[in-house]
């Protein structure tokens, strides 16, 4: 009887811990899979993107910023797959933005995309 009660309490504690961990991750605004990439992504962004996009702005086309609303408006499928939409934009460029697929590795592009996504979610 004691073992069954102990197991039931342990299961409750584990479930509560899981629920609290999920809630905490949702409150931080950073997807757990992206947390590691954002640090390197910030450095890569500063080295390659900040000349035109300092602080999430756009010095060439003022309304096409890296703010969430602008990304949603101007990047195809952003509302469905935001990271993939950002990756596509970085890889292929558009208009005045150059393509970076031959300048950055896929891992670097992924890290920049994670950084941009995280910053857009927190309003830069």
Automatic annotation (TrEMBL):
SUPFAM superfamilies: Cytochrome c (SSF46626)
Localization per Swiss-Prot or TrEMBL: Cellular thylakoid lumen
Listed GO MF terms: electron transfer activity; heme binding; iron ion binding
GO CC annotations, alphabetized: plasma membrane-derived thylakoid lumen
Residues of the Cytochrome c domain: 36-120
Ranges annotated as spanning the membrane: none
InterPro entries: Cyt_c-like_dom, Cyt_c-like_dom_sf, Cyt_C6, Cyt_C_IC
Alphabetically ordered keywords of this record: Electron transport, Heme, Iron, Metal-binding, Thylakoid, Transport
Superkingdom, taxonomy of origin: Bacteria
PANTHER family assigned: CYTOCHROME C6, CHLOROPLASTIC
NCBIfam families hit by this protein: Cytc6PetJCyano (NF045930)
Family: Belongs to the cytochrome c family. PetJ subfamily.
Name this polypeptide is given: Cytochrome c6
Native organism: Trichormus variabilis SAG 1403-4b
């Amino acid at each position: 009887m004691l073992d069954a009660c102990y197991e039931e309490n342990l299961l409750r504690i584990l479930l509560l811990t899981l629920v609290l961990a999920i809630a905490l991750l949702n409150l931080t605004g950073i997807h757990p899979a992206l947390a590691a990439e954002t640090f390197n992504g910030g450095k890569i962004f500063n080295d390659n993107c900040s000349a035109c996009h300092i602080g999430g702005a756009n010095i060439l086309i003022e309304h096409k910023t890296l703010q969430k609303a602008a990304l949603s408006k101007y990047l195809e499928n952003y509302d469905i797959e935001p990271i993939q939409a950002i990756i596509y934009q970085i890889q292929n460029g558009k208009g005045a933005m150059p393509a970076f697929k031959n300048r950055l590795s896929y891992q670097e592009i992924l890290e920049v995309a994670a950084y941009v996504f995280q910053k857009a979610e927190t309003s830069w």
